[in-house]
Inverse folding.
């Protein structure tokens, strides 16, 4: 298995990953005849085990494959837990733990510098003594990302990079995977927990990432101060993966993540506020 994934990783190095992802993204956004879009979405749903009963019926018929992939949930499909810190996305928690004293997180034996991950030299200090969780979104999952806390979005950073796959191949064979890939970080200022950071990490075939704080358009590269800050409640939408990837959540020392690794749905309890 290791030999197979290593060989696949070497082949990926020669693939124009960013250009391929952009091309696939544009193709997925092409308007389709409703009947064609319906057939395509049903084939995809059968292949990946998508629960179509959770989709908002008012959103259909889908105008493109991207419309289907970024589908909204029907009302009541998710219940928000009473906890102060919720999961921002559907998926699987593949790693969680403390931010080290050197300002790093460790995911499957690999160390990632928090400042580099967030695109901010101040971030390592801000999250020192805090915790992190990594949530992987499977192709079958709902791909909108929500606020884990009550607060206000004060900053959005979009960082350029590559688009390696965020899966077993990438994690095992691509050094510094999360900080090499394109990503968008959203800082939510919370009265109860302080600044909580939600980082959407792109991957191969992820066409683009859009953010609510910047009007729902493709997030331009750079550091964007949101003025006035955008008020959000737990569960409010923050952004969307146009095709999917991974979310990294950073919580300061005032919060504690109590959820074990494994499947999770957006709105479920992830932890508590200390003190």
């Amino acid at each position: 298995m290791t030999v197979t994934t290593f060989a696949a990783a070497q082949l990926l190095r020669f693939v124009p990953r960013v250009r391929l992802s952009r091309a696939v993204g544009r193709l997925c956004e092409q308007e389709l005849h409703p009947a064609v879009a319906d057939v395509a979405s049903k084939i995809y749903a059968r292949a990946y085990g998508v629960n179509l009963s959770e989709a908002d019926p008012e959103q259909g018929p889908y105008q493109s494959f991207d419309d289907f992939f970024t589908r909204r949930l029907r009302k009541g499909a998710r219940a928000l837990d009473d906890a102060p810190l919720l999961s921002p996305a559907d998926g699987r928690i593949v790693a969680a733990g403390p931010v080290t004293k050197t300002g790093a997180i460790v995911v499957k034996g690999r160390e990632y510098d928090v400042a580099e991950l967030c695109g901010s030299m101040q971030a390592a200090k801000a999250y020192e003594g805090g915790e992190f969780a990594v949530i992987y979104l499977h192709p079958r999952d709902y791909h909108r990302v929500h606020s884990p806390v009550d607060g206000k979005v004060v900053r959005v950073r979009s960082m350029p990079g590559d688009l390696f796959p965020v899966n077993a191949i990438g994690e095992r064979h691509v050094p510094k995977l999360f900080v090499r890939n394109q990503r968008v970080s959203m800082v939510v200022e919370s009265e109860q927990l302080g600044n909580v950071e939600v980082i959407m990490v792109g991957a191969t075939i992820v066409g683009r990432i859009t953010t609510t704080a910047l009007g729902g358009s493709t997030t331009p590269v750079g550091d964007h101060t949101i003025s006035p800050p955008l008020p959000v409640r737990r569960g409010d939408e923050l952004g969307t993966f146009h095709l999917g990837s991974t979310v990294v959540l950073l919580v300061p020392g005032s919060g504690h993540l109590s959820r074990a690794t494994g499947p999770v749905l957006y709105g479920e309890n992830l932890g508590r506020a200390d003190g």
User: Anything to note?
Assistant: Residues 34-48 form the longest helix (15 residues). The first strand starts at residue 85 and ends at 86.
